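Regression report. Comparing outputs from two consecutive submissions.

Submission 1:
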Amino acid sequence: MFLYWLEVSGVENAVDKGSGFLFHLNRHVAGSETDKHKHDYAELLYVSDGSLTQHVCGKDIDMRTGDVCLINSGCMHYESFEEDTFVIRLEISDMIIDALISNSMADEQAVDYIKELRKVLKNSESIHFASKDNYDNQLKDMLTALISECGVADMASAYICQGLMLRILWRLGTVYEYAQSRYIRKKINWLLHQEITDFIEDNMKDVTIDMLVERFGYQEDYFNRFLKAQTGMTFTEYLQDCRLNKSAILLKEDSMDVDEIIKEVGYRNKGYFYRIFTEKYNMTPAKFRKYIKEKEFTI
C-alpha cells in the first residue's frame, strides 16, 4: 500500500537522516532510457513493476518484476525500457555496509555473508538476483518497511533500518537465483547450504524434502542436485549423516539415554539406528559413549 502511495504522489526520494539511506523512486515510460552514469556508492535496483534491460560494464541484463541488481560503485551503467516500468533505487554507501558489519545485534553468519557479498560485488561489478516464478512479496514488503522507516527521525530508526537492510540482503542470498558466473555462484552457494543445514537441524525429528521445497521454493530434484554438489550426498543420505552426527554429540554430552537420543534425532526403529550408527562409527552407541568418556574422543 505504501509503494502505491509513493507512485501516485510523485515522491522521488526518501531519506533517513540518522542512517544515511537514500532512495530514488522512478517511473520510466516505454521506449526511454537513462543516461550513462556511475556512482561513488553501490546501487540496489529493484523492479517493482514492469521490465528493463540493465546495461552494466559491457553486459546486458534483462530484468523483470521482482528482480534485483546490485551495481558496484564506479561502474558505468544505464537502463533501457520497453514498457512502462517503476523502479526503486537504493544507495548503499560504504558507511552503510560498515555499519551492517559492525552491528552488534547482527548474527555472525549474516555478517560473514555481507562481507562475502561485498567481495563478490567488487570482483564482478554487478550481481543479478532473479526472482522465481512466484513473485516475492516478502522482499517488496521489506523494502516498503525500509522506505517507511526512512521517514522516521528518532534514535531507533537507524538501527531498525540496518536490521531491515540485513534482512533484505539475506533474503536475496537465500531465496533468489543468481544469474552469475560459476566463480560467483560458488562463492555464495555456501549460504544456501548453511540455511538448508540449519533448517534440517532445527526440524530434525520430522523434516522431509517436501518441507524444504515449501521453505525455500526449489523443486525436489534441485535439492538433491544441490546437496550432491555441495556434500556428495543426496538429501536422504545427508539427513542421515546430520542425524548420526547429532546423536554422537548427544552421546558425548551424556545427558540423555540412548532411547531418548534415538527419538530426539528422528528415528523410531531402534534396530535400524543401531545398525547405521555402528556402520558409521564402528561401534554401538553404548560403546561409543564409553569410549569418548575414557579417551576424551573429539567428534
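Submission 2:
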Amino acid sequence: MNKILKYLHVVILFLIAVSCEKYIDMKIPDKGRKPVVNCMFYNDSVFIVQVFESKFILDDAGYQPIENAFVTISENGIVSDTLTYYSQGYYKSNNLISQIGKNYEIEATFNGNTATSEGIIPSKQIITNIDTLLYSDQHNDNFRFNIKINDTENETNYYMLKIEKVNSVYYNNNVQIVYTNSEALSIETQWQGSQVINDNLFNGKAKTFSLDIDLSNLYNYNNEPIKFYISLYSISKDYYLYAVTSQAQQNTNGSPFSEPVMVYNNIKNGYGIFAGGSVYRDSIIVPSRGSGYQIKK
C-alpha cells in the first residue's frame, strides 16, 4: 500500500509540473535591412571596405554581400575618393592613401540607407628593442621575443602586437600569423592571432612584452632559415574596443551559461567598424637547424 501511495505521489507531481508549462509565441519585429560596413585602415595604404547586408535575427541564411553600394571616403571633411567594387562585397579606393593624423569619414549608401562613420590613424609607436631567447623544454624548441616600447605619457594608448612567419625566407610575400603563448605576461587579449593591449598599467613608461612560440613545427622540409616579422600597431580606441568585444563574443562559443556580449559598433545607421592604426615593423631571421641556432637580427 505504501509503495502504491509513493508512486501515486510521483505521478501527481509530474502531472502538476507538466500542466504548469506554458509556451509563449513571441513575435520579433523585422525592422528591415541596413548596411554592415567593415574597414580597418592603416598608414600609407589604400582603403579596403567590406559592405554586406544585415539580416533578420531568425534568418538561417548567411550574410549577403552588397555589390551596388555607393561608397565614399572623405579626408579632413573633403570627399576624396569614390571606391570601386571588385569582389564579394569588397570595395577599394582608387587614389586615396591614408595618412597618420588625418580625419577620415566613410559613407556607404544602399537602397536609400546611408551608413556613416569616422576615424583617425594614431601616431606611430616604434619598437625600441627586441631581445630573443632560444630554449628547450622536454618536448620542443621554443623561441621568446622580448619586445620593448616606450609608451607616450599623458594619453591613453592602444596597441596590437603581431608576429608573422615568412613561409620562405626567399619569398617575402607569403606570410602566416604565428600564434604565441603570452600567459601571465600582461597581455590583455588575443584577437585573430594578435595580442591586444592598452597602457593603463604602464602609461608613460617603458614596457617589455614577452611572446613565446614553439619552433618545432615551423621549419619546412628544406630546413630553410625562418624569417619573422614583428609588427607593432598603434590602434584607435574604436579599433581596440571592437577587437576586445569581438574576441569576448567568440569566447562564449554559444555557451548557454555565458552572458551575451555585444560587439562594439561605431557605424551610424548601420553596423560594423571603421577604425585606423599605424604600423611599425621589424624582422628577425632564425637560422636553419644545425647552424647553432644563433639568432640574426
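Expected: both submissions complete independently.
Actual: both completed, but the second showed a warning that disappeared on reload.
Relevant detail on submission 2: The two ends are 88 Å apart (CA to CA).
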